[in-house]
Specification:
Helix content: 25-40%
Order of helices and strands: HEEHHHEEEHEHEE
CATH topology of the domain at 3-144: Aminopeptidase
Strand content: 25-35%
Oligomer: single chain
CATH superfamily of the domain at 3-144: Gcn5-related N-acetyltransferase (GNAT)
Largest sheet: 8 strands, mixed
Distance between the termini: 24 Å
Number of strands: 8
Length: 205
């Protein structure tokens, strides 16, 4: 599906076929056609991202690996266990990504939040706007009771982002994830459905 057609699915801050948006920012489901733009943005942001992420596989930036990634995203969406989105600005440029991970039902009704931003787009409020779109959708569409997020204690940018979105710092998870080959402690934050602000009004056209 072409980017123009995918962007054409957007309407009024609601979920259309594979998109959520507000006229300034659009969240789109990743597709194999996104590979080259994704590869370029991740490659140029490697030094910016790797201190905060698990080690990248040797073939991470290849088309084959990206195809596996998109297939996994599609499978998780179909199973109701996850959702991944790419962020695009009003001109269609790829900015980064955000995902709901490990969605659980039953007594839990919980998901984890993941996100990344390309170096040249960081610090401009794009992820704050993306969470303003995604979080109300997550609670409404999936009837979640809670969304969790973790980050390294030294990642002040992420801490400010999460607290600005309403997440509450809840504690420390010891040796939670392997980051760049080392098991690292992470702060854990939580957001409850009753604490999530309503969706932003749709942009006028």
């Amino acid at each position: 599906m072409s980017l123009a057609l995918r962007l054409g699915n957007l309407f009024g801050g609601r979920t259309a076929t594979g998109s959520i948006g507000d006229g300034q920012l659009t969240l789109l489901q990743p597709a194999i056609d996104d590979f080259e733009e994704w590869r370029q943005l991740r490659e140029e942001s490697r030094d910016f991202l790797q201190p905060w992420e698990p080690a990248w596989p040797a073939d991470d930036l290849t088309r084959r690996a990206f195809g596996r990634r998109v297939a996994r995203y599609d499978a998780e969406r179909a199973a109701g266990t996850g959702e991944a989105w790419f962020l695009r600005d009003r001109d269609g440029a790829l900015l980064g990504g955000v995902a709901l991970i490990n969605m659980r039902g039953g007594a839990s009704m919980t998901a984890s939040l993941g996100y990344w931003m390309g170096r040249r787009h960081a610090g401009k409020g794009h992820m704050r706007r993306a969470l303003g779109l995604l979080l109300p959708h997550a609670f409404r569409a999936h009837r979640l009771a809670r969304i969790e997020a973790i980050c390294l204690p030294g990642n002040e940018r992420s801490i400010r982002l999460l607290q600005g979105a309403g997440f509450v710092r809840e504690g420390l998870l010891r040796a939670c994830l392997e980051i760049d080959g080392v098991r690292r402690d992470h702060l854990v934050f939580g957001l409850l459905d009753r604490d999530c602000p309503p969706p932003a009004p749709a942009a006028r056209r």
